[in-house]
Predict the 3D structure of the following.
Amino acid sequence: MGAGHAHRLYRHGHTPLHALPPHCKLAAVLCFVVVVVSTPREAVWAFGLYAVLLASVAAVARLPALFVLRRMLIEVPFVAFAVLMPFVAQGERVDVLGLSLSVNGLWGAWNVLAKGTLGVAASVILASTTELRALLLGLQRLKLPPLLVQIASFMIRYGDVIADEMRRMRIARESRGFQAKGVRHWGVLGKTAGALFIRSYERGERVHLAMISRGYAGTMPVIDEVTATRRQWSRALTLPLLALPICLLGWTTL
Amino acid sequence: MHVPDGFINAPASVATAVVAAGAVAVSLRGARRELDDRTAPLAGLVAAFIFAAQMLNFPVAAGTSGHLLGGALAAILVGPYTGVLVLSVVLLMQSVLFADGGLTALGVNITIMGIVTVVVAYVLFRGLVKILPRARRSVTVAAFVAALVSVPASAAAFTFLFAVAGTTDVPVGTMLTAMVGVHILIGVGEAAITALTVGAVIAVRPDLVYGARGRLAAPLKLRVGGELVDAAPESTPEPVAARSPLKVWTVGLAASLLLAGFVSFYASASPDGLEKVAADKGFDSQAEEHSGADWLFADYGVRDLANERLSGGLAGTIGVGVTLALGSGVFWAVRSRRTNTPATAADNSHVSESV
């Protein structure tokens, strides 16, 4: 793990998109995804326009296409599911390259692929232009329960610590000649997971004691309240506002 | 497997989001009762652990490997409320940071992977631990069974959602068989890993296994002059003023009825989904084909399914029934835990210091 101050998901930059307040960006992405999801699947051109919108946003944020595409690979397992759909769905069937496929299933697969991909792309752009801490502040600003935000922030803060602990355990195992090859070795790995849980839990207890000794009484003081001007809001909401007419047009031309 | 955007239609996404929000709100209160002001750091660290444990690869055979999903493990190790919270946070972060699971599908993901797995696993685990003899082994066996069932249960919940509100009409029976079949296989792996992990924790810190507290933790003994004597009983903290469950029940019932009406309205308003499948194939034939597999549908498919409204209402009623059963199951488990162990080793720090 690098010694950088930012997470590897974040791509440092000084673009208008980086400068927007996190809660505006979160709201914008959520609205955009809602608009995309409620677009009728038959309006194929609409999804093309959405993709163009997202591509221009990525261009504003100066994100390399390869970077975004690589991060989007997370979607692959569900693509497999989507590919199966035309084969198992029912309804009228059509012959494509000698295969009998369901029309409904083809539309369903297209629906999932298009909407899922756009959603993933929007999330990737959000995560790579917003720092982790800012994202949490944004969530808090969007009225997520403070306790939930605290839990999330502890998870983020100690995620790398716990992952490193696991990495050290692996190095310790391997330096003693252990190599997990199959089900026979699950016992050792299970013990690793157990030990990792105990260490995490005990670390949590220590962290709690440390917090109490510094005056923690159940809530965290909010030091850096993020605020947004009307101008920033309108900038952030440009994306969903541009997408909305496309969606409406999609419904009318159905 | 995280559900992406566009897989489940909008009304159902909203409905599951409401369910998820309600469950998270209940869990926030419950976790505060379980952990008081230690909630934030402890739940956060456990979330980090689940996140890390999901990266631990368990090789199956040449080339392939599996990993932990963690729902059952979290429920057993830290309790149902904290478990739901931890999984919800993990899913939220995966969705926002890694784009793993769509933002609009967050409610769906939390419902099927957080709530269903945790509740099924915990209820089953508590039940088994009660029945089986008091021994370390029975806790691991209970963990195995709970994890084994929780994974296909989650898959069945997904199939049910997909049947009611999916964007494609895949035959429900086929899908249920395929999903549950595949997930039983995954469940076996999950069960083995969960049981091994719980076993490893029990061997070192039995007091940390929330689900087995009071079943294993021996009373604290001090050695005074070479003799073991019982330590002075801890001053038992005043139990949290038990509020009447009636209020929670009524509110829950009202909410679930409202939701059921909402979902069934939309389900019958849109031609695809359960009704479409029912109209196309008729559930009677399905019930014969998979009489054992889709009992839920088979049961009410026998009745008059031509009447769409009736079938929608039935679906709603069944939904409420399931919700009620699950809810009361949790309450039952929680209450029996309380009555069973009035002075649990709740004060871990004390135990760990003196052991």
Residues 1-5 of chain A have pLDDT under 50 and may be disordered. The longest strand of chain A covers residues 93-96. Chain A touches chain B through 93 residues (CB under 8 Å).
